[in-house]
Amino acid sequence: MSLEILGMVGTKEVSETRGSYFDGPAVDTPYLTRFAQAHDEAGFDRVLIGYGATGPDGFAIASHVLASTGRLGVLIAHRPGFSVPTLVARKLATLDQLSGGGRIAIHHISGGSDADQRRDGDFADHDTRYDRTAEFMQVLRRTLTADAPFDHEGRFYRFEGAYSSVKPATPAGIPLFFGGQSDAAVAVGAEHADTYMLFGEPLEQTAERIALLRAEAAKHGRTLRFSLSTRPIIADTEDAAWARAEDIAAETRRRVQAAAAARPGLFPGMSASVSSARMQDVAARGQVYDERLWFGVTALTGPGGNSSGHVGTAQQVADALLRYHEIGVDAFLIRGFDPYDDVVHWGRELVPALRAGADRVPAPA
């Protein structure tokens, strides 16, 4: 079965254990270039470009990543509601044409942090944001594919003669990624997404979510792809990997405590989403699941995104991830606590092991 491997780039070296969100320039261009090229050389398919209401613009970052690499694709995160779907469609299609085709995808985030939404002027409530995302994705897809002007009148958007003369460069078009675990999110993603993104939960819970989402998508005559996010911690031996995990937890704990004393919000944009709440619930019940899925950092940092990770040697982690592949996960989003160094290391061992193992996984019945 084919497997997509995603990474994540940032404009400066920062993680729970490295650098600072608050010190230095927001964009370190030489670092971003090296980071993107490391993913390209390591064999990643594409990289996520995150979104925050105070951060650099994702489309501009994507342009730099595409120009700095030969084949690496980008997954541009954005929040529907701040740009109209017809404009976003033209931006995506233009990038796709300029980059040679097949390198552009977009990830829709309806917003788990009310405070971060309001920084950009969005005061809509949770379910309203998801309703808006559904309409956005509908119009976006139509704009990317329509061969003639069209009118649209919905709850959030109204267009007369909408049309884009620039189209995606390949028949595959622009894949639409989506995430969220609330009932409202499930309804939207099942109807409109191509790939549904999941946090790194235990195998049993992941299988349950996939089954639920497949059933919801089937109501619309659709099928979904699934992506799972994890933060691998790898070393030459299993003992060394767990020791590294404990070092990461100790440094994270030190930073969280220092930030609480100095200023709030070491990790800006803390989420109140259902996805983050599910992760916190798992972390409260235990730190290790399925032998090597570790929630040590999740328990320390609170709700704020994907923070669980698989711990072991490269082959052990690859084997653990391939168990998710067997239950229907089509892509893995992996990012490190030592962002650049981890990517280089993964390119030597983990990525090849995942590719080799995926070739041996039979297609689901």
Q: How many structural units, i.e. domains?
A: 1
Mean pLDDT: 92
The SS-based structural class is alpha/beta
The percentage helix is 40-55%
* CATH homologous superfamily classification: Luciferase-like domain
- The CATH architecture name reads Alpha-Beta Barrel
Number of helices: 13
Can you count the beta strands?
14
**The CATH topology is what?**
TIM Barrel
Low-confidence stretches: 265-270
What kind of sheet is the major sheet? 8 strands, parallel, barrel
Radius of gyration: 20 Å
Question: What portion of the residues fall into strands of 2 or more residues?
Answer: 15-25%
Terminal CA distance: 12 Å
Morphology call: globular
What string, H for helix and E for strand, traces the elements in order? EHEHEHEHHEEEHEHEEHHEEHEHEHH
Strand order of the largest sheet: 1-2-3-4-7-8-9-14
CATH class: Alpha Beta
